[in-house]
Amino acid sequence: MHTRAFVQRSRSYDSDEHERGAGACEWCEYALVITLATILLIGVSALTVFWVFFYREGYAWADDIPEKQFNLHPTLMVAGFITFSGFSVLLYRICRCFRRIYVKLLHAIFHALAFPCIVIGFLAVLDYHNKKGINNFYSLHSWIGFVAMGLFGLQYAVGFFSFLLLLICNKGTAGFRASLVPVHAAFGILTFVLGVAACLTGLTEKAIFTLGSDTYASMSQEAIVMNAIGMSVVAVAVLVLYTVRGTGGYRLRPAAQHPS
């Protein structure tokens, strides 16, 4: 009897140590991924601004320098679709200790920051095309971007109405809001992925049209910077999708309960 009790107690201690080790590793993984994602989300916008000022002569909104007006398009679209939208997705993993309503408000705020970026970025390129006599919505990049903008606007409207306004009648709408969560989450990830695709195709299109195929193929400094922006966008997408993989994302296992 004493031997059996000793074995059971030893297994219990081993299990406790295993759970603590697994929990520590999972927290380290969580902290590493969130830190890298945050750095990249901010860095990709900073790198885009650097590219525009160093190689494309900055920004403007004037008839005599439409090229500088165009520069608003990639900068604001990267900020809206990648940086702000990426943070809005990550909030549900970063703000683990906040009340749910605060997380929803922060989620809505980041989407609210992304909204004017996307709208102004779209108007900038539309006006640029009209000034230069370029056809609108002829490329794959523009088609993907148009769908991404439509889904973003729909997501924001549905999310604002369903998860913020309907909280006024919390108990009466709880079931409806709960059923809408997986749909809203799935379309949110789809919108983010389409935004990434739009940014990547847009960067490639801009590089070939502006630098020319020969200069781009020769790996000039600007081409390297533009490719670095594109790879940063890819890295952001990988990390953001990794944090929200499956349906539960990061769910740290609770400590096992053992009989005394």
From TrEMBL:
Residues 36-245 form the Cytochrome b561 domain. Gene3D superfamilies: 1.20.120.1770. Its cofactor is heme b. InterPro entries: CYB561/CYBRD1-like (IPR043205), Cyt_b561/ferric_Rdtase_TM (IPR006593). It is a multi-pass membrane protein. Keywords: Electron transport, Heme, Iron, Membrane, Metal-binding, Transmembrane, Transmembrane helix, Transport. The keyword Cell cycle does not apply. Its main location: membrane. It is found in: Membrane. It holds the Pfam family Cytochrom_B561. GO terms for molecular function: metal ion binding; oxidoreductase activity. This is Cytochrome b reductase 1.
